[in-house]
Amino acid sequence: MRHEVVWMAVTETSQQSPSATTVELQDVRRTYHLGEPVHALDGVSISLPAGSFTAVMGPSGSGKSTLMNMVGCLDTPDEGDVTVAGQDVTVLSGNERAKLRGTELGFIFQQFNLMPRLTAAENVTMPLVFHNDLDDGRRQRAETLLERVGLGDRLDHTPPELSGGQRQRVAIARALVNEPSLVLADEPTGNLDTDTGAEIMELFEQLHEAGRTILMVTHERHIAEHADRIIHLVDGQIEEIEQVGGER
Amino acid sequence: MKLTESFRISWRAITGHKLRSSLTTLGIIIGVGAVIVFMVLGGAFEANIAQDIREGNDEPGMWVNTQQESSGFGGSQILTNPIYTESDVAALESIDGVDFVAPEANKRAIQLRHGDQQQTGQFNIQATDPQRLDGDLSAGELFEADDEIVLPADAADIVDGGLAVGDEVQINYDGGPTKTFTVVGIVEESPGGGNNRIPTAGYISLDNYGTTVETPDGDTEKAYASMIVAAESTDTLDETQAAVLDYLKTDSDAAQLKGDDQVIKAQTVDDAVDQIGDIIDQFTFLIGGIAAISLVVGSIGIANIMIVSVTERTREIGIMKAIGARKRDIIQLFIVEALILGVIGAIIGVAVGLGIGYLGATGIGWPMVYPVDWIAIAVVIGMTVGVLSGLYPAWRGARVDPIEALRHE
User: How far apart are CA A64 and CA A126, in angstroms?
Assistant: First the structure.
């Protein structure tokens, strides 16, 4: 329980009423023209309530990545509406979407995607740097978050000096530093062994308990079962939305 | 994104590739270094000449002469028309601040002989007022009679053992008679004035000179092609120079006697130093400009490395964009990186240039000069080159699509 109390302390500013919707996708279509048109997303509608933990599963080519890019404001739909943190993403400019990513979203990748020459603490503060947030308290915030993920003694190590599990912990700290409305995780345990993966999922559970809204893409069922519900994508369409317990 | 943050992040990128960064700055180091070396050497050469001119010309004064107006390339030509009359000399001497006026008249000699030794060539024998040699004597005394001569030290050395006070010397004028003089004094430094292209081999009394002109008033007076106007004080030299020029250009006989395209000049030592300085400056700029071409090469080097580095860091750019970096943040990062490379290159280049310039100048025996304005210009050029060569790579970096970049291995 100690962990949870500390999480709450950091995250309380982002607490929202349970009824609020963080992300809303309305009949989203995205087609790539690679010789013949590929319908990566073919009329997808999803709503992510605040505080929900949603997993997305599906075979490769099912549109998982495109869905992540849509929700992550990296891509815009050809048709349909995407609303993230109350903003209509389809009408935003590239720079406005960048600002939305920097202030409302937290990204966790399979490849960790840390800046190789910056220290753990510097990596964690990166999202704040681009929008001049919290000029003075950045280092303090990074230290608190890194302690929270169990890396209090690795603040000034660079990614090459850290193990895979440690790198993913740095990435999780980075994803939380801007108090995001939504945490996006793309195969967060895909590059980790089973034990380390389980430790990382424990952190996700703690985030969920602390009230974070999480969207996670994975192809492993036992990872997806940590979520409240699993969205099954096939050929760019939602095949099934499965409610799971949220507990293993 | 704040500039201090981009400096921190860019600095990491630079120090993360030490060898590559060093090689990249090398182009700027060589370019800026070369420019500074030439500016130091040019400045040192100029300072050396200025020193030479000022030595032996420490008495305040000016050299009055007539020059052909704007003869194009090669500067102005000094004329030998006798237009400064005795009345002009007298009038100038009465101007406030003028100490004395020493007219000069050069006679061309082709041979100097002492006993059975002789020196043949082109020499000036200058008839002048002995006052101007006062203070420069290193031996003997000033001439009084028309068969007495004062020799400059280098002219006294043209015979074995050197000429000494009391020796006799025969001078063979060009196309004219030979006249025998008695050496009465030696001057250490030649006291300035005169036409420097032909060495002055002796100073004699104005009694040896008899060229006359008809003045505008209808009188016949002796007239000279040039003269030294000595001033009473260095402090008031500028005012005295203005007054002398004012008289010469308006009320003097010379103003009437000179040709329409001829200009009367009164040049102080400072004027002469400035004039020579201008000429040396032009050469320095020319050579420095050639050296600056290597700066262009250096900037291409920076641009090249930055483009490589954008490609190499495509994934990092993608990460930064995913977590909130805008286009201008990416542009800022790469331009700051190029700027740092340019400024470091410029600073090292200035240091290297000053070092080599110092070794060169002191090796030749010229005084060391610090071209402060060029150092500032070099640093500004380094910054500009850095920013310019960073522009295109930065623009490419900003265009990176984060989705593509994150897939990039």
Answer: 26
